[in-house]
Amino acid sequence: MATAGFTWLGLTYLAFLLYALLYRDSWISHCLRWNWLCGLGVIAYGTYLFHEFFLGMFFRTTPWLYSWRDGGLSLFVLVVTIVFCRLSWIYFEKPLVKIGHRTSYQFGAAVLKRTAAAPAEGS
User: Fold this and answer.
1) Are 54 and 84 in contact (CB under 8 A)?
2) How much is the pTM?
3) Best CA proximity match to 47, nearest among 92, 80, 90
4) By residue range, what is the domain housing residue 94?
């Protein structure tokens, strides 16, 4: 798996995504547009960042499924992580993204306009 398996796994995901993009009426494309799946995609990075924190908070060691209790606790940690990341998206990340979309990033053009509009020194 370590030599070529991850490459093939990535290429398989790429093939699925390209197929879904090129054939928009396919069942794969329809599945990828499900609302709950898109919602998970929105919070995916936050989940990536915080899942280890919540696992460490509820498990003393690396979580293994030795009993039904461990399975239930893992499911609880998953729900807590998803709820936290959803709230983080709504109240923290989304407002920052909106601010970023309202901001103009044409720094070079703004400097050129300011210099052209400024009067020459000594006049």
Assistant:
1) yes
2) 0.69
3) 80
4) 33-103
DSSP state of 36: H
Q: Which amino acid is at 57?
A: M
* 34-92 residue pLDDT tens: 999 999 999 999 999 999 999 999 887 777 888 898 899 999 999 999 999 999 999 99
Q: Is residue 92 part of a domain?
A: yes
Spatial CA neighbour of 97 closest among 31, 46, 56: 46
Does any domain span residue 24? no
Total structural domains in the chain? 1
Long-range contacts of 33-41 (CB under 8 A, 24+ apart): 39/86, 40/82
The verdict on residue 19 lying in a domain is no
Residue 59: predicted pLDDT:
86
